[in-house]
Design brief:
single chain, mainly alpha, Cytochrome Bc1 Complex, Chain D, domain 2, 6 helices, 2 strands, 3% strand
Length: 156
């Protein structure tokens, strides 16, 4: 019996040792992964918050361009920024050059199919801004080549 009790005690001791080893291995693995993902994760240096936080002026205009959106600075700009860039990129607006009728039709389509809210008096401001600053551009053939010395081909 004493041999059996001694054997059971040894098995329990080995079980406890294996549990301790697995816990230590798990902790070491987690620390290793954290260190790989963030090498400065265990750094005890203080961060100077005054240097890391910068103020961004979302309505900054440089050289006549609204920096954040790329829209031209003109009457109605902020109304366009507030209403149009809430749902999509300003680049989508800029690339679609239309006349007033087409802009109004597009706004109506967005209201019917894309859940655009009623713009009220802002619609006229928005359309006037877009037509004035991003009018339709006629596309067609390239301009004829000028000032070229042509030569005759010899048929042989």
């Amino acid at each position: 019996m004493a041999v059996k009790d001694n054997f059971n005690k040894q098995i329990e001791d080995i079980g406890r040792q294996l549990k301790i080893i697995s816990i230590i291995t798990s902790i070491a693995s987690i620390l290793f992964i954290v260190l790989l993902l963030n090498p400065n994760g265990f750094s005890f240096e203080t961060i100077d918050t005054e240097q890391t936080i910068t103020e961004v002026n979302e309505d900054l205009i440089e050289n006549g361009i609204h920096v954040r959106t790329g829209f031209k600075d003109a009457e109605g700009l902020l109304t366009v920024v507030q209403n149009c860039t809430s749902c999509h990129s300003s680049k989508l607006v800029i690339q679609n050059r239309m006349n007033a009728d087409r802009w109004n039709a597009t706004i109506k389509w967005m209201q019917e199919t894309q859940n655009l809210w009623d713009l009220g008096e802002n619609q006229e401001v928005i359309v006037n801004y877009l037509v004035a600053n991003y009018p339709p551009v006629e596309k067609g053939r390239r301009e004829n080549i000028k000032d070229i010395e042509w030569y005759e081909l010899n048929n042989r």
